[in-house]
Amino acid sequence: MMNVHATLSPNVSRLVSRMITVKSWFAVIACLIMAVTFFFVVIFRYLFDADLFAYEEWLLIICFWLYFMGSAIGTFEGSHVNADLLSYVINDPKKAHIRAILVTAIELIVTLALVYWAVLMLIDEISSYPRWRTTIALRIPFFVPRLAILVGFGFMAFYSALHLYARIRTGPEEATP
């Protein structure tokens, strides 16, 4: 994995580190909320023979945000799932560097297309304002999880752009998959 921070200015590097820290803390807190919620669901259901009202609705929102913030962290760390077998076949550092730039550029283009579609989805959601689609019980607007999609893809595009910048800026010596 390449060190993106080494190619950034100190201010940008600090900003990116803080963004990752905030997302990591959000993921920790979201996981704790989910665990505590399921604990109380079991307690309510099996000890009190009751149900925790509409927990699925707000938990689904937390899951959306967790999934997309986690995917943004994975994009930054380069730990997201990929099917890149060429990195194991190409031994020439210069060809490996070119391959890494191409893969990262394709990743950025695809992510930017997803950001565009997420913006269109949110525009469509906002345009139906007084009659927003909402969850059944708690009336949470669908805008909330859809905003997570846009924010998550936005962060993924930003981190892909940082990786592309870093790969172009560094030479073939540091071009690792």
TrEMBL record:
Sequence ranges assigned to domain Tripartite ATP-independent periplasmic transporters DctQ component in this UniProt record: 34-169
Compartment(s) of residence: Cell inner membrane
Residue intervals passing through the bilayer: 24-46, 58-79, 100-123, 143-162
Membrane topology qualifier: Multi-pass membrane protein
Keywords of the record: Cell inner membrane, Cell membrane, Membrane, Transmembrane, Transmembrane helix, Transport
Domain of life where this protein originates: Bacteria
Primary localisation category: membrane
InterPro entries: DctQ (IPR055348), TRAP_DctQ (IPR007387)
Pfam families: DctQ
Family statement: Belongs to the TRAP transporter small permease family.
Role of this protein: Part of the tripartite ATP-independent periplasmic (TRAP) transport system.
Subunit structure: The complex comprises the extracytoplasmic solute receptor protein and the two transmembrane proteins.
Name listed for the protein in its UniProt record: TRAP transporter small permease protein
Organism: Roseobacter fucihabitans
